[in-house]
Amino acid sequence: MIRSIMKTAKEKINNLLKSFSIKQLYFAAVLPLLILGYILIAFSVWNVYLHQMKNTLALETQNAIMNKADNFNGYFDSLYYATDSIIYSDITQQLLQKNVTPPSPDDQSLLTDILYNYMYHSSSSYVINSWTINNPIVTLSIQNAAGDLYATSAIYNTEKKRTNELFGLLKDNITALHGQGYLFWDIQSRSLYFFRAIYNNQISQTDQFLGLLSIRLSSRVFADSIGYHSSSSSTSYCFVTTEGEIVSNFSLLSDSDCQELFNNNRLTLHAYNYHANSQELKYGNFVLMGIINDSKLYAGSYRLLRHLLILISISVILITGSIILAYRVISGRFNQFIRKISSTDSLGNAALIHMNVKGEFEELENVYNSMLVRVSQLTSSLHAQELATKDAELASLYAQINPHFLYNTLDCINGLISLQKSSEAQASIVSLSKFLRFAIKADNIVSLQKELEYVRNYLFIEKIRYQNRLLVLIDVPEELNSYTIPKLTLQPLIENAIIHGFNDSFKEMLIAVTAASDDSSVILHIKDNGCGISEEIIDKINHLDPSIDMDDKNTGCNGIGLMNIQKRLRLTYGNNYGISIQKNFKDGTHILICIPKKQSGDMSN
């Protein structure tokens, strides 16, 4: 079933292509397929290349954001491990374990010195933040288990007071982490704090709560974790709390726009499309929000895609132009070939084609010229054969006419002798001898004057036979006597009128021979008042084509002579000439003989 459908479709396509001209094949078959191919290429570039590029850029951007988040987390991991040297030092543990409320000034002073020393003289064995230029620690504070601010590097009382308030506010959250770091953004002071709960370092007493450690940090921590980035970059950053509070904004967007982007994950602003890639941070309730400007991020990809599409369009235009040029060249050569063939009206060297090109058209030219040479040779051979055949047919027709007339004449003389009219018979024999001498020795083409003399010799014999029953009028203008006519043209027609038109009738026989002419032809008229000719014979003779073999026997006995005359005239002059038979208005026959105007001097033509 499928094979049959495919076969039918193939046949329909082939039939459709066969009905196309070269131009239609180029513009309806080749060009659409070419354009479709380029459309598929462009579609593939769009779907494969562009999506791949977008995925690659999105992945790279996400990795960059994750690296920034790892930098931030890594800093506080370092800070976490670095603070172990404070909270688990022997002095710190001893002072906090005294559980004296309030602590003595000496103990406070000693612990404060430790904090200052830690801030400004960090151990060379461990650096808190190796990727920052300056120490980001602003103040360090320790509170004992009783809630007293045991030691602090803070100078201002307002800061000390705020630190003590935060210890009380966040104590439960900090102790819930059991010594893990807790990061907090203080909206009131716009400061970042790092907290740790301090526990006894003795294995048997690890659950003993000793106090809290607080480190106030510079906001430079946010900038250091992000590192340098250009404001014109496609990705910018913003630190946000999980509640949507903007902590530090490093983007060109306002805080309100950042909050909207954080809440909706997408934002369109000033013809730019943004989307957020948020990474939760390890410490506290912070989120690093990567703000990605899609318009800038994919601008290069779109620009490259436009360049590719422009190149594809240019290539389509170039190939289309090449196809049109090739069509015009090929079509021009075909038109040159066709014009040459159309303008050729004869065979010979003038009909040969010389296009002066190489390739297939040169081969076509050679084949065509070779064919013309062969056709010319065959035409010459056929023409020679046709002339030979025509001469043979003419000779055969003359052989038919002469015995036929001789038979009729001898029959007439025999009648005279039977009637004991010896003088008339003798005169008839003299006229017959002149008649035969003309028929045998004269050229096949004679002047109209000689043909009329030949007719008069024949009529002399017939008038002896028919006496007053035969009346003949010959009225031919003298200026037509010099024009030529095949011999034995008029006499057989008159003989046919006498024998077949009056054979069974005793009425008077009237025959008129007249002539006229136009610019190119001589027209002879033979009219009689006989019994006429049947429509069937008239139709066959009027439409006779001598190139078609027709059997004269099918014409009827009184049509043989007429058929012979028609054949001779048309073999000699062509089918535009010959005899045309009509019926008279009342009775009898009207025969028109049309021959070309040729003078006696043109007999050789």
Largest sheet: 5 strands, antiparallel
CATH third-tier fold name of the largest domain:
Beta-Lactamase
How many domains comprise the coordinates? 2
Strand sequence of the main sheet, in spatial order? 2-1-5-4-3
Which architecture of the largest domain per CATH?
A: 2-Layer Sandwich
Uncertain segments are 123-133, 553-557
CATH-defined superfamily of the largest domain = PAS domain
Count of alpha/pi helices: 16
Our estimate of the beta-strand percent is 15-25%
From the N-terminal CA to the C-terminal CA, the straight-line distance is 72 Å
Please state the average pLDDT score: 80
Radius of gyration of CA atoms, rounded to a whole number = 65 Å
GO molecular function, one term: phosphorelay sensor kinase activity
Domain Histidine kinase/HSP90-like ATPase: 485-599
Pfam families: HATPase_c, His_kinase
Subcellular location: Cell membrane
Question: What does this protein structure show overall?
Answer:
The chain has 605 residues and is α+β, with helices and mostly antiparallel strands. It folds into two domains: 60-296, Beta-Lactamase (2-Layer Sandwich); 382-602, Heat Shock Protein 90. The protein has helices at 2-18, 22-82, 84-87, 90-97, 105-120, 157-176, 220-226, 255-264, 294-297, 299-343, 360-418, 422-441, 448-466, 490-502, 535-542, 560-573; strands at residues 137-144, 149-152, 182-186, 191-199, 209-217, 235-241, 246-249, 266-269, 272-280, 286-293, 445-447, 470-475, 484-486, 509-517, 521-528, 578-583, 589-596. Strands 2-1-5-4-3 form a five-stranded antiparallel beta sheet. A five-stranded antiparallel beta sheet has the order 7-6-10-9-8, with helices on both faces. Helix 2 packs antiparallel against helix 10, helix 11 packs antiparallel against helix 12 (422-441) and helix 12 runs antiparallel to helix 13 (448-466).
